[in-house]
Amino acid sequence: MATFRAEWHGLKESLDFIERLGVNAERTVGRGVGRAALRVQEDIRNHVENMVYSQPSSSSGYLRTHTLMRSVRAAHPDADHGSDEARAYGGQNLAATSPDGIVEASGGVLVSEVGSWISYAALVHQGINQPQPRPFVAVAVPAAEAALEVEIMKVILEEFAKAPRM
User: Fold this and answer.
1) How many structural domains is the chain composed of?
2) What distances in angstroms separate CA 84 from CA 54, 62, 131, 141, one per listed residue?
3) CA nearest 77: which of 156, 1, 157, 159?
4) What pLDDT digit, counting tens, does each position of 43-70 carry?
5) Which domain holds residue 39?
6) Rg (CA), the chain
7) pLDDT in tens, 32-44
8) pTM across the whole model
């Protein structure tokens, strides 16, 4: 498994502040975490393209099918990934489509996961059986952490602009 786990700590404090602005706080912050996860999903896919598919093919004659890139997705932390490999190998893009369904609130933390759960993703990421690692998730982490804050703030501002004034 090669994944990034987006977490927003201090949920209660954030929600209290946002509620005072007249905005549905939990839904708003959750949408921000979900949008950040979708943004990270695209960033990781770009890193897979640059680190794996843009490199010369191996001498073993391995056929590049882009299965690894199709397998990268944002997911709810409790998602069942059992069929990911078959679906990705079957040509199906596993992208999440809704930020609302990929976030879980647990113990004062909002969580979403982004990555690939197919069997060889970790092998590619860590460089096992290859001349070098291709850490497509790890290189996305700094931008992913920034995206989390940016997307949450964007959603808060959007919701605040729509909130009725008293």
Assistant:
1) 1
2) 24, 21, 27, 23
3) 1
4) 999 989 988 888 777 666 566 778 888 8
5) 2-162
6) 18
7) 888 888 888 999 9
8) 0.77
